TrEMBL record:
An annotated Gene Ontology molecular function: GTPase binding
Official protein name in the record: MYO5B protein
Domain of life: Eukaryota
Pfam families registered for this protein in UniProt: DIL (PF01843)
Gene that specifies this protein: Myo5b_3
Residue ranges crossing the lipid bilayer per the database entry: none
Residue ranges occupied by any Dilute domain in the UniProt entry: 1-126
Lineage: Eukaryota, Metazoa, Chordata, Craniata, Vertebrata
InterPro entries (alphabetical): Dilute_dom, Vascular_dev_regulator
Length: 171
């Protein structure tokens, strides 16, 4: 069950983040607030179902960071440093794309300046990120089957003759 929810939450993360990276109309402060609220609801549901050890919440980390990126101030070099230290699960390309798509919803917000985006790129140039913008929503985590040892000892096993396993010898 834990593995199923980890996979499901990864797919939610990938689809939501890919939509954010492809749609200018959703890159705003209010969308960041809504995303963060929805993610907290998912995290609370996981805790309520005792699934916090499944790794499902960790698969949402890029989306959480993207939501926080939309909510942060984007003016000074201190803001740029905060963004660079906060967005460790996002690639440089993803951060820059979200900043380029950022669209102010009301008159209190301002567009992200080109100088600010260049500052971010300069600070993040040392990262060795994969040159990938979108997440692969078809990625599958490996299925792990836990080993459950049997209480039956090998000495007590009787092999019926009808199985024609005479070539096996008890040691």
């Amino acid at each position: 069950i834990q593995q199923v929810f980890k996979q499901l939450f990864y797919m939610i993360n990938a689809m939501a983040l890919n939509n954010l990276l492809l749609r200018k109309d959703v890159c705003s402060w209010s969308t960041g607030m809504q995303l963060r609220f929805n993610i907290s609801q998912l995290e609370e549901w996981l805790r309520g179902k005792n699934l916090q050890q499944s790794g499902a919440a960790q698969t949402l980390e890029p989306l959480i960071q993207a939501a926080q990126l939309l909510q942060l101030k984007k003016k000074t070099s201190e803001d740029a440093e905060a963004i660079c230290s906060l967005c460790t699960s996002l690639t440089t390309q993803q951060i820059v794309k979200i900043l380029n798509l950022y669209t102010p919803v009301n008159e209190f917000e301002e567009r992200v300046t080109v100088a600010f985006i260049r500052n971010i790129q300069k600070q993040l140039q040392e990262r060795n990120d994969p040159p990938q913008l979108l997440l692969d929503f078809k990625h599958m985590f490996p299925v792990l089957f836990p080993f459950n040892p049997s209480a039956i000892t090998m000495d007590s096993i009787h092999l019926p003759a009808s199985l024609n396993l005479d070539f096996l010898n008890k040691v």
